[in-house]
Amino acid sequence: MPAVVANNLSRIYRSSSGGFFRKKTKDFEALRGVDLEIPQGSLFGLLGPNGAGKTTTVRILTTLLVPTGGSVTIQGIDAVAEPHRVRERIGYALGGDKGFYERLSARDNLRFFADLYRVAARDQHKRVDHVLELVNLDDRRDDRVEGYSRGMKQRLHIARSLLHDPDIIFLDEPTNGLDPLAARDIRQAVKQLRTAGKTILLTTHYMFEAEELCDRLAVINHGKIITEGTSRDLADAAQTGLVARVECRGATEAVCERLQAAAGVISASLESLDDRELVTVRLSVSSSAKAEQLVTQALDEMTDVQVLHLSLREPTLEDSYIALVSQADGGGRS
User: Which helix (H) or strand (E) segment is 207 a member of?
Assistant: First the structure.
């Protein structure tokens, strides 16, 4: 049985404007038929631009928001009909600097939340110490939270979500805005949870992080899932090809246009243009063997263009993500 199943999820927000007699309402469709299936024990990544519907999806899956349409089951339990049963099985860390009693220590904060999670009194001391050790805060357990950095508070959010030993954990952008060392600590904690057999849904804007941590990924945009699968599946769906960078001298956007029209070039975009008239163009090409020939032939008639450097590499998850989002149907983001 999958850990999480979402079928045809939709969510509409309604806003009002105008006066009492001329009141106008406007519907905003945040989710438009989202389907997800997350296997037990997997680490599933949900990717998408700002406003794409990631947080709305997470809030529905964690019973914080009721969907307008569709269904959600968590370990076979209807999340809309029986939210209390679902909450016993899930933990969620939505992050941010708020959510704790600043003048209390980390240990006292977690004891308070352990009571709310109905952790048995005889087990509270052991659970609090365990989760603090897991997120590498055991040496600061008796310090007031008001003295914590943002990264430490983020780790404390994760610790709080683990107090009742949930089977499924939802992490909404847990490393957003953190310095590299703090973000590394968060990723290490996530890996430990994955090793312990927890099911994790992670949302993130950092593609390297998703590629490092996640078994499977889904890309959401405009309230719809664009594609789902492994990193390789996303690359195949995006058809990014090999990524080439061409550094030229003596031309501007015309180089991009010429390369875009060349046979074998999937896409071309201008990356930079500096004061020395150096142009860097990013290409997706179908064949590494023909890449140099493609560039040479495409720019051969442009006598004022000098190719200084050509480099090739395999596409990354970020390349695939950018291509998929760019290919998505236009319109306002939800």
Answer: helix 207-213
